[in-house]
Amino acid sequence: MTLNGIPLNDSESQEVFWVNIPSLSGMLSGVQVQRGLGTSASGTGAFGASINMNTAFVGASPTVRFDLSYGSWNTLTSLVSASTGIMKGGVYLSGAYSEDRTDGYIRGGSVTCRSAFAALGWLSGANSLRLTYLMGSQKSGITWNGIDLETYAKDRRYNSSGMYLDEFGNVHYHLDYDRYTQHNLQLNYTHQFPRSVAWTTTFNYTRGDGYDEYWTGADPSYTRRYMGNDFYALKSDVRSSGEKLLLTAGLAASLYHGRHFGKDFYDTEIGDFSRGEVTEIYRNRTFKGDWSVYARAEYRPLKQLNAYLDLQYRGIYLNMKGVDDGEAKVDYGTLWHFFNPRAGLTAVFGGHKVYASAAFGHREPGRGDLKEVIAFNNAGGEPKQELKPEKMVDVEIGYGYESEKFSAGANLYFMEYWDMLLETGRLSKSGYAIKNNVDRAFRRGIELSAAWAPASWVTLRGNLTLSLNKVKRYEDHATDVDDEYNYLSTWTVYEGGVCTNTDILLSPSVIGMGEVAFKPFATLSCEPVKDLALTFTVKGVGKQYLDNTSSPDRLVPAYYVCDLSLTDTIPLKAGSLTLGFYAGNFTNHLYYTGGGAWKLMHPTDGFVSGIYIYPQPPVSFTGKISYNF
Questions:
Q1: Which end of the chain is more exposed for a tag (fewer CB within 10 A), N or C?
Q2: Cis ω before 62 (30° cut-off from 0)
């Protein structure tokens, strides 16, 4: 995921935590989604897909926008944004602020989010200079424990996080929560040279701070796990556009410094930090350097034919040091070198498009995965474990057709993995999905899509994906525990845990969507209802598994969701007013979308296992009003 060309993915986990940048969609001017390995210019470590977002666009005239919505579970979202447009001298200024609150469907899942955006820019002839600031702040209740099927049948909203017993054995709940604030600052400069040559450079600094808080109801009263990080990034490239040849070459570099430490708070009233004793229980840090150089050439020998070649060299330095939660040392250092080539060919003629591409890419293990292996090896686990970067070959062949009223497309993809970093179905204490290497795996399938507008007031569209997602050989393991079921740092491959040609967890073989959109008054000249739109959408997901054993005892059944929206845009003398009403899951279908599996090896009881799932809400309603001028 990139924002103005700079990766948003956390350097340690390689994930994007959208809750840290709430209401981002209301601050974007454009989003580009690329399947497969994408291009080198889309990010240093694009693997599987890329989403590229841009906040750069500014209109010529001043604009103001207000959004307000309220819905089920006291969900309130608000956004205000404004732009000066391009003023005298080419200067422009734009900004936005949002605030979101909800009680959440799951008990204890309340969320409070705030975000702010500001951009100060200058346009003059061949020069463009822009300073962008983005802030996100969130406090969200912890709900990643999930529930078992027995609890699901009794109370779908139950959440065990924060549960404790008082001195009389009575059950109480404290709001265990995650709190994080992130600041992003970017400076971008673009210069347009003669002969269609452009140079663009972006500097980025990101600062993040936060912690998780867990209440115990006993000594210590509660525990906090803190995280602080600094991320510095630079990206610079030159682009030359000719009649038949487009060339791009550039470099990207980043440095990440992450700090992790935990504290126990004893005999301290919640929110009163002037009392009690505080003990630090662990501290560690991570340095990660990432650099890459890339070159891309697109050649169009004929108007209907385009070919491209994309080459990237990437280097990564990783150094971890200190003591982790549980007093386990996490000292580790390595240097990785990757070469990632990509190539493709596209032909367009008379509304038809045919394309083919092939790409080879790498992805390194994350900090959380490495910690698990380090703890296993330090605890004397046998055989010794080593996490390796995963490799993937992605081959795609597709066809598309587009006319005035009808469009359709089909895409065949073959993603072949070596040393795949495969999720195991287990979570770390901080909610990260733990991964291990598997020698060979693949994702192969076909994506179908179509849209038809038989009349100006109705549109039908849909898509369907059919796939096989398999691991050639997988060794599932159980976490070792002592006689009192305390977790140890080792694991055991249990009897029946070795699987061949098994399904990759949380990877359904069937995914589909169908949508019908009506504009019943589109042919009338009555402005208040001319843009009135009614949209009905149904999405279906086939069965999937909670681990990599294809066991029917660890299955997420197929489910569907039906949504309904009613919107209308009313022109005003100054601007326009948009009203919307949305009904999510309006058929009140009860379902769950995911979860995981736990497996323990007890010295006396032997193999013990279970699952946890994440229930999704029943029918929900939201009303929204937007004003633009």
A1: C
A2: no
**Local structure of residue 40 (DSSP, 8 states):** G
CB atoms within 10 A of CB 5: 24
SS3 percent helix, strand, coil of the chain, rounded to 5, is 5, 65, 30
Residue 142: DSSP 8-state: -
Least confident of 3-7, 425-429, 557-561: 425-429
Most confident by average pLDDT, 45-54, 118-127, 273-282:
118-127
CA distance 607 to 604: 9
- Taking CA atoms, 167 is separated from 164, 216, 223, 468, 593, in Å, by 10, 12, 19, 53, 38
Cβ pair 3, 134 in contact under 8 A: yes
Q: Which of 109-113, 216-220, 270-274, 577-581 has the lowest mean pLDDT?
A: 270-274
Rg for the chain, CA atoms, rounded = 26
Residue 594 confidence (pLDDT) above 60: yes
For range 364-376, the mean pLDDT: 87
The gap from C-alpha 62 to its chain's centroid, in whole angstroms, comes to 33
Nearest to 226 by CA among 325, 333, 331: 325
Burial 39-50 (b: 16+ CB within 10 A, else e): bbbbbbbbbeeb
Contact 438, 419 (CB under 8 A): yes
- Which token pair is 488? 């140890």
Residue with tokens 């979101």: 100
- pLDDT-derived band at 282, boundaries 50, 70, 90: very high
Q: How far is CA 52 from CA 5, 31, 139, 249, 316, in A?
A: 7, 6, 26, 18, 22
- Please give the pLDDT value at position 273: 47
Q: Are 415 and 443 in contact (CB under 8 A)?
A: yes
Q: How many residues does the chain have?
A: 629
Burial class (CB in 10 A: 0-12, 13-18, 19+), 259: middle
Please provide the DSSP assignment of 470-525 as one string. Answer: EEEEEEEEEEEE-TT--EEEEEEEEEEEEEEEEEPTT--SEEEEEEEEE-TTTTS-
Q: Residue 222: beta bridge partners?
A: 215, 265
Model confidence, pTM: 0.92
Q: SS3 for 383-434, per residue? A: CCCCCCCEEEEEEEEEEEEECCCEEEEEEEEEEEEEEEEEEEEEECCCCCEE
Q: pLDDT tens, 68-111?
A: 999 999 999 999 999 999 998 899 999 999 999 999 999 999 99
Q: What token pair was written down for 185?
A: 């600052």
